[in-house]
Amino acid sequence: MNRPYNFSAGPAAIPEEVLKTAASEMLDWHGSGMSVMEMSHRGKEFISICEKAESDFRELMAVPKEFHILFMQGGGLAENAIVPLNLSRGATVDFVVSGSWSKKSRKEAGKYAAEVHTAASGEDSQFTTLPDPASWQLSRGASYLHICSNETIDGVEFQQLPDLKALGSDAPLVIDFSSHVASRSVDWSKVGLAFGGAQKNLGPAGLTLVVVRDDLLGHALPACPSAFDYKVVADNASMFNTPPTWGIYVAGLTFEWLKNQREGDAVGIAAMERRNVAKAQSLYDFIDASGFYVNKVAANCRSRMNIPFFLKDESRNDDFLAGAKAHQLLQLKGHKSVGGMRASLYNAMPMAGVDALIAYMREFEKKHS
Ligand code: PMP
């Protein structure tokens, strides 16, 4: 069976091999007589799944030993509260607002942090550019600075993480990497904490991945729920409460899949990154060369993962989407807040899917211009 290409921004496509393995192990995981969903999280079977998922992610993403990897729940939006509950310590927190998700994060932090300061914003450009780090107004003594390293709705991505030390700040950098985790490497020397929901690049919804530097543990506000206190979660190896076992298992299968990816002489995340650069470049080049479609994001800020684009004649939007579906190209409708179209090219999207999308876009353009 040829499955359609699925361009959803999330929950998003999962590699077919991962789905097939999960299906084949559904009734009986490795001779245990149980589905992973039916196992005690404290039994040796699930503990082996969880430990392997964690060590595979650490290896894949080269996470240094002074960071904990936590499997939590609540998604990115819960982290918008959990981060200030753990890290704000009664001081000001800084935000760079680069799109819809960081804007949401800033608002939520206002409920928990003593003060929220906007160090920079891309709102004046309708989030088509990222504010240059050299222009950021960092607060003195901020407990952390939050950025969204890939804005899923606006389609802007930091191509390099800011070096806060070089900008004269000791604040740890917090990144929301929900929509590009595992699509590229991370320079952990610049990061204090990273969080992301799993449902774009790692597996099913319900699992949140947190990577946190050890010195940031143990500073939660008294009101922080125990299940959301990073130190409690770390001390209990993500098993203070019942973790999202199915999500961890499928993410673990995805990490195995990632470890086996090759692109020329690159392996794992480096291979993924090379492929993601090529996929995105191909679609942006096509859009830029066409007089029919447009992407408004400045070239050096464009996301490799989420590519919003517009038909110059928006009255054809419904036709475009109906035709796409007939061509087995699914979930291309743009986010309701920006309209138009959006193609999300996460790790599970092969180059052949991008080629098929471009062929359809070319055909649609020819027919209507
Ligand atoms: N941050 C980013 C960058 C996202 O893309 C999303 C979801 N699209 C969220 C946060 C919110 O995630 P959730 O719905 O899992 O809470």
Automatic annotation (TrEMBL):
Keyword Zinc: no
Pathway: Amino-acid biosynthesis; L-serine biosynthesis; L-serine from 3-phospho-D-glycerate: step 2/3; Cofactor biosynthesis; pyridoxine 5'-phosphate biosynthesis; pyridoxine 5'-phosphate from D-erythrose 4-phosphate: step 3/5
Residues reported to bind pyridoxal 5'-phosphate: 101, 152, 176, 199, 241-242
Enzyme Commission no: 2.6.1.52
GO CC annotations, alphabetized: cytoplasm
GO biological process, one term: pyridoxine biosynthetic process
UniProt-listed SUPFAM superfamilies: PLP-dependent transferases (SSF53383)
Record's cofactor remark: Binds 1 pyridoxal phosphate per subunit.
Gene Ontology molecular function terms on file: O-phospho-L-serine:2-oxoglutarate aminotransferase activity; pyridoxal phosphate binding
Species whose genome carries this gene: Diaphorobacter aerolatus
Binding residues for L-glutamate: 42
UniProt similarity note: Belongs to the class-V pyridoxal-phosphate-dependent aminotransferase family. SerC subfamily.
Class of the enzyme per the UniProt entry, highest EC level: transferase
Entry-annotated residues carrying N6-(pyridoxal phosphate)lysine: 200
Subcellular localization, as worded in the UniProt entry: Cytoplasm
InterPro entries according to UniProt: Aminotrans_V_dom, Aminotrans_V_PyrdxlP_BS, Pser_aminoTfrase, PyrdxlP-dep_Trfase, PyrdxlP-dep_Trfase_major, PyrdxlP-dep_Trfase_small
The reaction(s) this protein catalyses: 4-(phosphooxy)-L-threonine + 2-oxoglutarate = (R)-3-hydroxy-2-oxo-4-phosphooxybutanoate + L-glutamate; O-phospho-L-serine + 2-oxoglutarate = 3-phosphooxypyruvate + L-glutamate
Subunit annotation: Homodimer.
Main location: cytoplasm
Key words of the record: Amino-acid biosynthesis, Aminotransferase, Cytoplasm, Pyridoxal phosphate, Pyridoxine biosynthesis, Serine biosynthesis, Transferase
Protein name from the UniProt record: Phosphoserine aminotransferase
Pfam hit, one: Aminotran_5
